[in-house]
Design goal:
The chain is of the alpha+beta class. The chain is about 60% helix and about 10% strand. The strands form three sheets. Strands 2, 3, 4, 5, 6 and 7 form a six-stranded antiparallel beta sheet that branches. Helix 26 packs across helix 29.
Length: about 775
């Protein structure tokens, strides 16, 4: 009769098994397509909240990043100019052997027309509309004899390279305007190179463009390898030379390689540990293969669904998802723990017996994971969807396939028997003096620990740049006097013309900061693209001054020199943005957003202790805002840390309600270990001086869903040794998974993993202490 009931029960199970097979085949096809051209994202900004951000701020941040996304800056230095030239020549030659990786940009070319030369040619028709503030002041006040003297002096001097003939610029205004533009960079042309001097060396600046995507599925670092080879070639011939590099592409490549390594370490390491546990417990290849299949299908399905809902899958989603191994195997553990020692004909009955506890455990875990999706972090939403789908897929694999494929005998092993028997030796919390002492000690420990707990919401928790790259980036920024990309002014106006006027006026108001050397320089879009009003003003000043100068020179020399004709129409934004000159300032022009036009004004040489002084210049200014991305994002992280803490309390209430509906007055036994474990984890952080941050709170949310699972199974099956065996295996494997995550080089993942490691260990140790009284005379490993 038992065998007949088992066979009859397997008939609908066959249908579910075939339906799930169809789904899995679809996932396999999708995975093949995905990995042929992986849509993976390494941009750390994708992790940041977006719902509350103004679109112009997001555009400003992304545009400045994208402007340099594929650009690499190389500085080669040596004690003297000849050595520097030799080093640069060899370096360029070595990189030329890898044309598929890197392209030498125009600003780094040693021959041919440079971007500067093309920019000069572009501006030439509007030469008489381009004046600096100082030039305008001089033209307004210069006496007639001074204009004449300067024109005569320019007439008998050799013209500057590329500046044109005398009659096109009789007062020599054009070179001065370009020298002021060149003041935004320390690099100067010299012998066909871009040269600067600093830190006791003569430097050559090379600019390359990467031809590769940022992410490499293999974890290879071809750009870094090519640069290292070129550097070694230089050092072999020029031991005193120094090579310094910087660029977003190098950071992205390092992040991709690190993510690939961590995925392998965390994912495969956790998988190997899980499979080893399965072997020690069951001494059979069948549980190993089936549990491994459930994990593989869970991760593959999670990735496919995530790629379906998101345009790009973040690399950290995969690293985080690799830890899913430590959770998704729980369902297989519970099935085989109950199946062990029973006849194969009982497998459908065993599954029916486990379904209430398995379903409730899945529900609480999915609710906890999806709670992450409430936070307006695109990266966290991906992680939430990935994890929730992965758990559901692993659960369905166990339910639909395990009873169909698990047909052979599965005897009880000695390891499993000892683990089952250990439940009765585990202490239980009871209402006696020992329980009271434990409670008092816990209250004191938690109270003092929480009083010492500090918080940290630094945006740097999102970054994990290698130290050598960060050091070289800082050196490049210092040598080239690069502007800050985190602190700047954001200007807005109703039209491009008003925006350019406001940009020029506000830059002029910052002059006291330059005089006091609070700032080294200011990069304004109006420096390269004056407003029409400014162009017309310059046009009148230049026309009057040069007409007088020409008349005086003709009278003095007896010549009949005439002035060059220039463009009759002003230089417009569209013309500028399509020109080579826009390379110098394109990232600062944001254009029209929601009926307003925006531009960014960058500052150079700002020290952290001068932030408030500089920011005060924007106070009361119409259409001018001071932006401090570091401070703003840190404040945003702090706000969401508090909101996630409130969500944690709400989740606790919902989970408690679900447990009460199932267990009534015994529900406290399932939820108390998780509550106590979470409090002990926070208290331990306080004692050890580990700061609480957003990702620690997110880990506590997941602990709520995962930790409660252990209480559910021990409450659902009181005294059942097989339930304790499954809980023990699940706890150890989860500890291994998240323990490896705590070793991540990404600070956010490391904080998350450390919280999970301590919390999971604490909850796992506490759960059997709160188990209900046994309904069995001794633990059993069968239902």
């Amino acid at each position: 009769m038992t065998e007949q009931r088992s066979l009859s029960a397997s008939k609908p199970a066959k249908l579910y098994a075939w339906l799930w097979l169809c789904v899995v085949l679809i996932v396999v096809v999708e995975q093949i397509q995905f990995w042929r051209a992986p849509r993976l994202d390494t941009d750390v900004l994708a992790l940041l909240p977006t719902d509350e951000q103004h679109p112009e701020l997001l555009l400003a941040t992304r545009q400045m990043l994208q402007h340099n996304n594929q650009r690499l800056v190389i500085l080669l230095g040596a004690p003297n100019w000849q050595q520097t030239q030799a080093a640069a020549t060899l370096f360029v030659a070595e990189l030329a052997k890898s044309p598929a990786l890197l392209k030498l940009s125009d600003t780094g070319a040693t021959n041919g027309a440079t971007n500067l030369e093309r920019s000069i040619e572009f501006y030439r028709p509007w030469r008489d509309r381009l004046l600096s503030v100082e030039q305008k002041t001089w033209l307004r006040t210069a006496p007639a004899d001074e204009l004449e003297a300067r024109a005569l002096m320019q007439l008998y001097q050799l013209p500057g390279a590329g500046m044109g003939e005398w009659r096109s610029d009789p007062l020599g205004l054009w070179p001065e305007w370009w020298r002021e533009r060149g003041g935004e960079s320390k690099a100067r042309p010299r012998d066909g190179w871009l040269w600067l001097s600093g830190a006791g060396k003569e430097w050559i600046l090379l600019s390359y463009e990467s031809r590769l995507p940022a992410f490499s599925a293999s974890g290879a670092m071809p750009l870094t390898a090519a640069l290292n080879r070129a550097e070694q070639a230089v050092l072999q011939t020029q031991p005193n030379a120094e090579v310094v590099r910087a660029g977003v592409a190098l950071y992205a490549e390092a992040a991709a390689a690190q993510g690939n390594q961590e995925m392998s370490t965390i994912g495969f390491g956790a998988l190997a540990a899980v499979l080893l546990l399965v072997w020690c417990t069951f001494r059979s290849l069948r549980p190993i293969l089936l549990v491994g299949v459930s994990l593989l299908i869970g991760c593959a399905t999670a990735l496919s669904v995530t790629a379906l809902f998101f345009d790009r899958v973040h690399l950290l989603t995969l690293v985080f998802g690799a830890s899913l191994v430590g959770v998704a195997e729980d369902y297989g553990f519970h099935y085989f723990a109950a199946r062990q020692g029973n006849d194969a004909s009982a497998r459908f009955k065993i599954l029916r017996h486990l379904m209430p506890g398995l379903s409730l455990a899945l529900l609480t875990s999915v609710v906890a994971y999806l709670a992450l999706g409430i936070a307006p972090f695109p990266g966290l939403r991906q992680m939430a969807l990935f994890s929730a789908v992965g758990l559901v897929a692993a659960f369905l694999t166990v339910v639909c396939w395990f009873p169909m494929l698990d047909r052979g005998p599965l005897p009880t092993t000695r390891f499993a028997q000892k683990m089952c028997a250990s439940l009765m030796r585990w202490p239980r919390i009871t209402a006696n003096k020992y329980g009271a002492l434990c409670l008092l000690a816990s209250i004191i420990f938690v109270g003092f620990g929480l009083s010492k707990l500090q918080t940290q919401d630094d945006i740097r928790q999102l970054y994990s740049a290698p130290k050598n790259l960060a050091s070289e980036q800082a050196q490049v920024a210092q040598l080239l006097n690069l502007p800050s990309g985190s602190q700047y002014f954001l200007l807005s106006a109703a039209s491009p013309e008003l925006l350019l006027q406001r940009d020029a006026a506000f830059k002029l108001s910052l002059t006291p900061l330059l005089r006091a050397q609070t700032l080294v320089g200011i990069n304004a879009i109006s420096d390269w693209l004056p407003s029409i009003a400014a162009q017309n003003e310059s046009l009148k000043l230049v026309a009057n001054a040069e007409a007088f100068a020409l008349t005086a020179v003709n009278a003095s020399t007896g010549e009949t020199l005439s002035r060059t004709e220039f463009s009759q129409s002003p230089l417009l934004p569209d013309q500028f943005l399509a020109s080579p000159a826009a390379e110098f300032a394109r990232a600062q022009w944001l254009g029209e957003i929601g009926g307003q036009y925006y531009a960014v004004m960058l500052i150079r040489g700002l020290e952290s202790n001068e932030l408030n002084e500089v920011a005060s210049y924007a106070h009361g200014q119409v259409g001018v805002r001071w932006i401090d991305r570091t401070a703003d994002t840190s404040a945003l992280l702090a706000r969401y840390r508090l909101q996630m803490g409130q969500l944690l309390l709400l989740g606790l209430a919902l989970v408690s309600l679900l447990l009460w509906l199932r267990f009534r007055n015994q529900a406290w036994r399932a939820v108390t270990p998780t509550i106590v474990g979470g409090l002990l984890t926070l208290a331990l952080f306080g004692w050890l001086g580990i700061p609480l941050q957003l990702f620690s709170v997110l880990a506590l949310i997941l602990l709520l869903g995962m930790g409660v699972d252990y209480g559910i199974f021990l409450t659902e099956h009181p005294g059942d040794g097989s339930a304790w065996l499954a809980v023990a295996l699940a706890g150890v494997s989860t500890l291994l998974s998240f323990g490896l995550l705590a070793l991540s080089q990404t600070p956010a993942l490391r904080a998350f993993g450390l919280t999970m490691l301590i919390g999971e260990l604490t909850i796992w140790l506490l759960t059997p202490c709160f188990r209900p009284p046994s309904t069995h005379p001794e633990p059993t490993c069968s239902i």
